[in-house]
């Protein structure tokens, strides 16, 4: 087997194993909470008989291991259970919100990743000079602002001073793509500001590290322009560290943006999770937790795979 | 002169040094050097490290490495001064009029790009030729430089070809855009001696056939004598002597040049055979989890107060043998006896005396010392560890050791960064001596040093051997060093000892094939040596 394929298969297998472990941890964590689902439904005043009845009805009297495998079996078949609060099918509720989450994250990523890499290249090209200082200064300022401050600032600027957008990012099924895009513009801007600096700084650092190499001097002595040197000779060797930071930020865009969702009233997974945590809706928390974990594991796995494929020594063995 | 391509007039190059713990210091790297290169001629720049030869070489492209500044004089290339030319004008001449071949081709190729892409990059970027033309020229250069599979080698990545091949590909890269001048900066220094001769011959032929002019930078006078028309000898950034290659080699005027020419003429009479202190018997070793023998049935021994030289090229198993003797790589089979007792194969099974009596000195003195400890602490550590010396007693012994390595009183408080390369290696020798060893394994201890400095170290080692009766296992790829220090020689090739015995026996014909190849590949300080060797080899292979 080609060594790259072997490494990739190894990484994927490891990712699946990790996901299994995470599912066990989530299940155990929820299990360790005081009280159970039956208690949560019936409330503090429930009689012991009523509790026992409900537990039997829901299968909660089974041993934990049995219930774990029942839950896991359901998950594998796409059945995430039903929410306690409104008896809705969780998979269905999540499906639409996951779409919204991915749409927002995708828009933010489509702008922030190329922009961050471009700014990183420019900053590295002019390291220590004013373009570098300007780029670093601005992006470090935006990352230092708490998300909600940035959000309110952007709302004030783009709905009051220049009334271009709506302050509330309402999306619903049946909206056209462009209407959706217009609706999420403000949260996307805020998220871009939040994630830009991290990726930009990493690109800059990785390139400056590579710029110390002897082959960069070779490229300079070939009479290439500084930007050609950075783009053709430094960047291809700086991909692996950049990709791993990009993936961490993409994961953050999917699972960590609940504050931005709340500020803009955007109906997505983060808000859904927080709502159900406050209501102690255990099956929903478990399901969303598992999805978030899967996103993290998948993106990091993708970063590993890209780093493997980007390495010519692995791609073309002797 | 009408056919002058490049001339340096009173060139001055400066930089700012930042020594640790001291204010920045202004240093002059090159001071008032004037020399010129005619079209199609090869000028050799020679000198030890720090002589300013690479700095002058790069200044021919008006390039200063790091914070190096070209502060004075003129650099006239094709009739114009390029020292103060604009960045755009410099980009235009770099890679078109002047190209560069670096010492380490392995580090100078971009690991992420195919060779062909890098070889033709300059020609295409400067619009000298189209991509197709450049590729065709590259292939013909690959062929000219005797690279295997010239048609397809360009599709490989740098890590997929050997060091010697990579150096030739880099030469092709420099010649591809049809420059007027190529700077060769120690192009064969990092290669094995048997590889060096092929690369040297290929470079010489390519220079001759393309009619390009060249600056050939090296510290090895014997090498430059084979390719250069004229030689400039440099020291501390100043011109020492300039003349035709014939004059410099055969009739050097300056004392420094004479020292360079006569270097490595240490005469060391071999000592008679005696009962061994270290005896390696039928040792075979392999790395964990592999079935490949990196050492095959090796049998050698060393007598007290004598030197066994282990000679071979990189990958021949020389250092692996040292690792087996020191217990870092336990042999799969065979026996090692030392001072009358059998050594445990494994490091963990050895006594403190085993460890003390068997010391090591390494090639890179820099990284073999803790940069945050003073010389006194470094030498004092074995005194404490093996003999429990403390206080005044320890200080006294440290001073004795420093005297032995011919370093004065002030050195005990210095840090390694404040020492020269030769001094660092002396401190490592003192540290090994501190343990009062019976045997010291010297692993390429002079390879990273300039010839004159290396000579000093060899003399010191011989002197210490006479006084302390310590035996050396001396690992090296350099046959001149072997002649200077060895009593016995073992020639290694692919993990096996192919020739072994007293020095005079090993170095006297008839030779086996490999020893013959190795011995005949060592550059000799005479004109026409390269052609002689190549002709002899051609005749021999024709005879076969």
Automatic annotation (TrEMBL), chain A:
One of its GO terms (cellular component) is plasma membrane. It is found in: Cell membrane. This is ABC transporter permease. The chain crosses the membrane at residues 12-30, 102-124, 145-165, 177-197, 238-264, 284-310. It comes from Tabrizicola oligotrophica. GO terms for biological process: transmembrane transport. Gene3D superfamilies: MetI-like. The keyword Cell membrane applies. Coiled coil: none annotated. Residues 98-303 form the ABC transmembrane type-1 domain. The keyword Membrane applies. Belongs to the binding-protein-dependent transport system permease family. Keywords: Cell membrane, Membrane, Transmembrane, Transmembrane helix, Transport.
TrEMBL record, chain B:
It is a peripheral membrane protein. It holds the Pfam family ABC_tran. This is ABC transporter ATP-binding protein. PANTHER family: D,D-DIPEPTIDE TRANSPORT ATP-BINDING PROTEIN DDPF-RELATED (PTHR43776:SF7), TRANSPORT ATP-BINDING PROTEIN (PTHR43776). Belongs to the ABC transporter superfamily. One of its GO terms (cellular component) is plasma membrane. One of its GO terms (biological process) is peptide transport. Residues 11-261, 278-519 form the ABC transporter domain. Keywords: ATP-binding, Nucleotide-binding, Transport. Gene3D superfamilies: P-loop containing nucleotide triphosphate hydrolases. It is found in: Cell inner membrane. One of its GO terms (molecular function) is ATP binding. It comes from the Bacteria.
């Amino acid at each position: 087997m080609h060594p790259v394929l072997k490494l990739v298969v190894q990484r994927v297998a490891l990712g699946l194993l990790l996901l299994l472990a995470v599912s066990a941890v989530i299940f155990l964590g929820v299990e360790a909470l005081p009280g159970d689902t039956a208690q949560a439904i019936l409330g503090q005043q429930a009689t012991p008989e009523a509790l026992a009845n409900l537990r039997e009805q829901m299968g909660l009297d089974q041993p934990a291991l049995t219930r774990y495998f029942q839950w896991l079996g359901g998950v594998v078949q796409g059945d995430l259970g039903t929410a306690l609060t409104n008896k809705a099918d969780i998979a269905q509720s999540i499906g639409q919100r996951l779409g919204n989450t991915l749409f927002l994250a995708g828009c933010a990523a489509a702008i922030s990743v190329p922009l961050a890499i471009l700014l990183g290249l420019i900053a590295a090209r002019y390291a220590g000079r004013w373009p570098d200082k300007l780029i670093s200064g601005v992006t470090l300022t935006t990352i230092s602002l708490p998300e909600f401050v940035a959000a309110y600032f952007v709302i004030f600027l783009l709905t009051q001073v220049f009334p271009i957008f709506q302050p509330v990012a309402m999306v619903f099924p049946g909206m056209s793509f462009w209407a959706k895009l217009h609706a999420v513009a403000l949260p996307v801007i805020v998220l871009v500001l939040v994630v830009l600096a991290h990726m930009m700084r990493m690109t800059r650092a990785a390139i400056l590290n590579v710029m110390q190499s002897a082959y960069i001097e070779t490229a300079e002595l070939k009479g290439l322009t500084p930007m050609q040197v950075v783009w053709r000779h430094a960047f291809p060797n700086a991909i692996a560290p950049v990709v791993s930071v990009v993936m961490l930020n993409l994961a953050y865009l999917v699972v960590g943006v609940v504050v931005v969702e709340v500020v803009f009233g955007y109906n997505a997974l983060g808000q859904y999770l927080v709502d159900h945590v406050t209501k102690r809706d255990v099956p929903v928390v478990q399901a969303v937790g598992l999805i978030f974990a899967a996103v993290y594991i998948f993106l990091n796995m993708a970063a590993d795979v890209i780093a493997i494929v980007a390495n010519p020594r692995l791609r073309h063995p002797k | 002169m009408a056919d002058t391509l490049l001339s340096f007039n009173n060139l001055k190059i400066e930089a700012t040094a930042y020594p640790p713990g001291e204010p920045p210091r202004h240093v002059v790297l090159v001071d008032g050097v004037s020399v010129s290169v005619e079209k199609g001629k090869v000028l050799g720049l020679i000198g030890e490290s720090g002589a300013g030869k690479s700095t002058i070489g790069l200044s021919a492209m008006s390039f200063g490495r790091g914070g190096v500044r070209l502060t004075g004089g003129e650099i006239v290339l094709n009739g114009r001064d390029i020292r103060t030319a604009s960045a755009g004008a410099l980009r235009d001449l770099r890679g078109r009029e002047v190209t560069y071949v670096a010492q380490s081709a392995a580090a100078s190729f971009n690991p992420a790009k195919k060779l062909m892409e890098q070889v033709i990059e300059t020609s295409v970027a400067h619009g000298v030729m189209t991509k197709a033309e450049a590729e065709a020229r590259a292939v013909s250069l690959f062929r000219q430089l005797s690279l295997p599979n010239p048609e397809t080698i360009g599709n490989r990545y740098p890590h997929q070809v050997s060091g010697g091949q990579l150096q030739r590909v880099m030469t092709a890269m420099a010649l591809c855009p049809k420059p007027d001048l190529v700077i060769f900066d120690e192009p064969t220094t990092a290669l094995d001696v048997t590889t060096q001769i092929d690369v040297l011959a290929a470079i010489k032929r390519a220079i001759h056939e393309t009619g390009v002019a060249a600056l050939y930078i090296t510290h090895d006078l014997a090498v430059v004598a084979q390719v250069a028309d004229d030689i400039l000898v440099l020291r501390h950034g100043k011109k020492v002597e300039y003349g035709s290659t014939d004059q410099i080699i055969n009739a050097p005027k300056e004392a420094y040049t004479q020292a360079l020419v006569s270097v490595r003429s240490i005469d060391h009479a071999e000592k008679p055979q005696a009962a061994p202190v270290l005896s390696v018997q039928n040792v075979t070793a392999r790395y964990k989890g592999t079935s490949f023998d990196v050492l095959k049935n090796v049998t050698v021994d060393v007598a007290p107060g004598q030197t066994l030289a282990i000679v071979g090229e990189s990958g021949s198993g020389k250092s692996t043998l040292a690792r087996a003797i020191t217990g870092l790589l336990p042999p799969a089979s065979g026996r090692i006896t030392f001072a009358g007792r059998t050594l445990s194969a494994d490091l963990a099974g050895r006594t403190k005396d085993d460890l003390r009596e068997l010391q090591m000195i390494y090639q890179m003195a820099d990284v073999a010392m803790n940069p945050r400890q003073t010389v006194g602490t470094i030498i004092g550590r074995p005194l404490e560890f093996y003999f429990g010396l403390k206080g005044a007693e320890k200080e006294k012994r440290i001073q004795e050791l420093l005297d032995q390595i011919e370093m004065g009183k002030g050195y005990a408080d210095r840090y390694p960064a404040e020492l020269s390369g030769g001094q660092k290696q002396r401190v490592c020798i003192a540290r090994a001596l501190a343990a009062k060893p019976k045997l010291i394994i010297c692993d390429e201890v002079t390879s990273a040093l300039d010839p004159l400095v290396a000579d000093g170290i060899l003399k010191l080692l011989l002197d210490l051997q006479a006084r302390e009766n310590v035996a050396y296992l001396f690992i090296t790829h350099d046959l001149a060093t072997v002649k200077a220090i060895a009593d016995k020689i073992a020639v290694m090739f692919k993990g096996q000892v192919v020739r072994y015995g007293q020095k005079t026996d090993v170095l006297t014909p008839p030779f086996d094939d490999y020893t013959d190849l190795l011995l005949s590949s060592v550059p000799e300080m005479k004109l026409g040596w390269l052609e002689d060797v190549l002709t002899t080899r051609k005749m021999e292979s024709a005879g076969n």
